[in-house]
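Follow-up to my post from last week.
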Amino acid sequence: MIDHPDDSHTISRYESTGGYTQSKRALGLTRDELVEEIKTSGLLGRGGAAFPAGLKWSFLAPARPAYVIVNADESEPGTFKDRQLLERDPHQMIEGIIITSIANEVHHAFVYVRGEYPKPARRVQAAVDEAYAKGYLGNGIFGSDYELEVTVHLGGGAYICGEETALINSLEGKRGEPRLKPPYFPAAKGLYMMPTIVNNVETVSNLPHILAMGAGEFSGLTGNADTGTFMMSLSGHVSRPGNYELPHGITWRALIYEIGGGIPDGKELKAWIPGGASAPWFVPEKHLDLEITKDATAAAGSMLGSGAVIVMDEDTCMVKAAERVVRFFAHESCGQCTPCREGTTWLEMILRRIEEGQGRAVDLDLLIDVSDGISIGLAWPPKMTTICPLGPSAVSPIMALKDYFRDEVDSHVTNGGCPFHAHSEEGFVPPLEGGPVERSETEGGRPPEVAV
Amino acid sequence: MSHWSEDTQERARQIIARYPEKRSAVMPLLYLAMAEEGYLTGDGMEEVARWCEITPAQVLSVASFYTMYKRERTGQYLVSCCTSITCMLLGADDVLHAVEDESGVPHGETDDEGLLSVEHVECIGACGAAPAVQVNYELIEGVSPEKARELVQWLKSARPDVVNSDEMQELFGARRSFDWGISEEHGAIGPYPAFQPLGTVGSEVAD
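User reply:
Got it. Predicted complex:
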């Protein structure tokens, strides 16, 4: 899926390797045949939730018009796979859009590209223009009487719009706040309250290949329940970071040490985040030889999520790393739900206090207590107190501190500072100002005093 | 009664035509408004409200939600340093401090001349070659503190009309998340992303 010659983004190159033959063939298939094929393939959504794609299609309510939205709002820290697919192979995604639309009797599709990706958006728009010019989009695609319009939409810099109902609100010209499910399941009440399919870029990009090789062969690419190949974005302290398209089922050790080339400078591995910033962390003592599958990762209390693996070496301060991940969620909280809006901000401030050497012996318990207010019992998968999973995601680093790095938190407190970094006035980056939610009042506050 | 140029108005009409409902065009029209005035003014938001047939308050509710709609005067060059987890692990804080120090502009602020704004941002999807910096959302990967200083000096002295990812990557970047390999002439002329639908692009300059 990610083998790219220099002109891989052009329609001529895409067609020279069999591009658009499957979308044309899909016109001759019925909805039932297409949905069944994707169900049989076992394709799981690649945006993070790993929901079966065929099942998602089958839930689509009968009312029309219905819409297809490709979620290209890739913003999860550590994730950069969709950027590559958008930039280097936009026609593969467009062909997937055509197949999705035909299968679901949809005549208007949208590609929601995150605002910080202007170059990928330009590539996608150019590819859409090429497809229109060829008659593969627009009125009467491939000489049939089927109409399909595709609109490329640029986001405004809000991670939360990767959540499908927030994305729909955003596309309607509203604040990107997630909607309650039920009743607002996109398959029933989505864009403009009509049935809507929201699929990730990578999910859609798999479709031409499934039709080309057949569901059976696709599902046979791996010897386990997670079918097909999977893109992993490897980053952090590894010798060979990058995007890798892999079959499910290799081990973390193989990913980090063989594919990723190990930890630079001969250092030891300390921890890694297995599936984007939302996922609970893994540590080598417990998890290095686990297989990379949805089920094995879930059984170990985490998730493959967006496929982003962030590797941290032995010299990484876990408190600082936790602070940086939590800060992200605090900044990106849409502010609708109190546990998330307040909780993430308090977590960020308490972590900063510990990192700066003003932590107290009770602060870890305080972090756990605040986390419990966002995600009851710090369970995984989380017990939700909020409309969407953003708030509970911020708790993942706290779970790591609680389970594996208590000593490190304690040493920050007893040493009166970070054992890894000498902090000066300018050695620390203050929180972002502004953001989706005006938080000036809470930002000016201090973490709550706790009786010792 | 529009304050916008005829060209921009035509683009607004084309953008609205791409959506089933006018209100859906709010976000692209907000970028148009920024391109007209350099940042998002009250007048700009009122204009967008008229085009989308909603109230200015509804437009503000959208504009204030997203970080990329700048409602304060922003420099010709918006330098955004990623300090999210992967970039932080690989030294992004030092890159940010280098940019602040060399430009004299603390993050979140703009210089007196209106040339440079500096901000630190959350993940911009370049983790494979961290740390990453964007200028007007045009990406540079694998930036060292020294190269970040050179970037600031270049913006101050060369004052390019158009900033382009490929050119800046060549001058100030190192490795990339994946091999881009394809040069592109498009770039940004202001602190907003160089993309507009329909191929006709105000902030995007070919040639």
